[in-house]
Design a protein that fits this description.
Layout: E1 2-6, H1 9-21, E2 29-32, H2 39-50, E3 60-63, E4 65-67, H3 78-87, E5 97-98, H4 106-119, E6 125-128, E7 150-153, H5 156-162, E8 175-178, H6 181-185, E9 189-194, H7 200-208, E10 226-231, H8 241-249
Helix pairs in contact: 1-2
The protein binds fructose -6-phosphate.
The site of fructose -6-phosphate has 14 residues, from loops.
């Protein structure tokens, strides 16, 4: 695992956009996340697109997760969020955005989504945020390390965390469809970004703690090409920071 530390959230977005831009090419398959962390990275990609430096033509986009029961027009559905925050500003035809279907039979939607990923040839690079409890996608602690896209119940902490996007916590759906930890592991590359002091514990556990279902994001340790990009605040709990900085400064050609 490669750990990259930058001073600010804006610098994290720049590093993440540099990495993602390498996968935004005809035939590329990109896994995208929602939540607040990736927004600055998406702004950076959109700015590059605006300057004519990047075209997402011919790229397929796969979301990590979706709320059960919210249709495409619901403002808090991850489909709508990704359309508004990334797909439409990048001028991508929405038929290239794939999101688990929150209105389908939730017991079948996961398997259908797995088939869509397979049919696209697999995800080249999956962007990830991390929850304060170490979740990735909506794989809460104790999720099987080998799980596939499926129906899950949110952790009460996640309901609380995500209430900020809704009018009240009661409105946050309790059920979601999420790529599994096994699905995420099959992506060619994993890129996890985290910013802010509230992520410091989760970052320390996922980078330096044991590989464990208690911290789903720790599966990055098992992946052959995982990169974690964090700001100062999110890096605050890392014990081996000096090594990560040394490794970055002395990266082989
Ligand atoms: C979003 C997702 C979640 C978020 C995580 C962090 O698609 O799957 O795992 O990445 O909850 O959310 P933020 O970035 O809002 O702190």
């Amino acid at each position: 695992m490669e750990v990259v530390i930058r001073h600010t959230a804006a610098e994290v977005a720049e590093v993440a956009a540099d990495i993602l831009a390498g996968y935004i090419r005809p035939g590329g398959v990109l896994g995208v996340a929602t939540g607040s962390t990736p927004i600055a990275t998406y702004h950076e990609l959109i700015a590059r697109h605006g300057r004519g430096e990047l075209s997402a033509e011919g790229v397929e986009f796969f979301a990590l997760d979706e709320y059960v029961g919210l249709d495409h027009d619901h403002p808090q559905s991850y489909y709508r969020t990704l359309r508004d925050e990334l797909i439409d500003p990048l001028e991508v035809d929405p038929e290239h955005l794939h999101v688990p279907d929150g209105t389908a039979d939730p017991h079948k939607a996961g398997g259908i989504y797995e088939e869509q990923i397979l049919a696209a040839g697999g995800i080249d690079c999956q962007l990830l945020g991390v929850g304060v409890n170490g979740h990735i996608g909506f794989n809460e602690p104790t999720s099987s390390l080998n799980s596939v896209t499926r129906l899950k119940t949110l952790h009460p902490q996640t309901v609380k965390d995500n209430a900020r996007f809704f009018d009240s916590a009661e409105e946050v759906p309790r059920h979601v469809l999420t790529q599994g930890l096994g699905t995420i592991q099959r992506a060619g590359r994993l890129l996890l970004i985290a910013t802010g002091a509230n992520k410091a514990d989760a970052v320390a556990k996922l980078v330096e703690g044991p590989l464990s279902a208690a911290c789903p994001a720790s599966i990055l340790q098992w992946h052959p090409h995982a990169t974690v990009v964090v700001d100062e605040e999110a890096a605050a709990g890392l014990a081996n920071r000096e090594y990560y900085e040394f490794a970055e400064a002395n990266k082989p050609e």
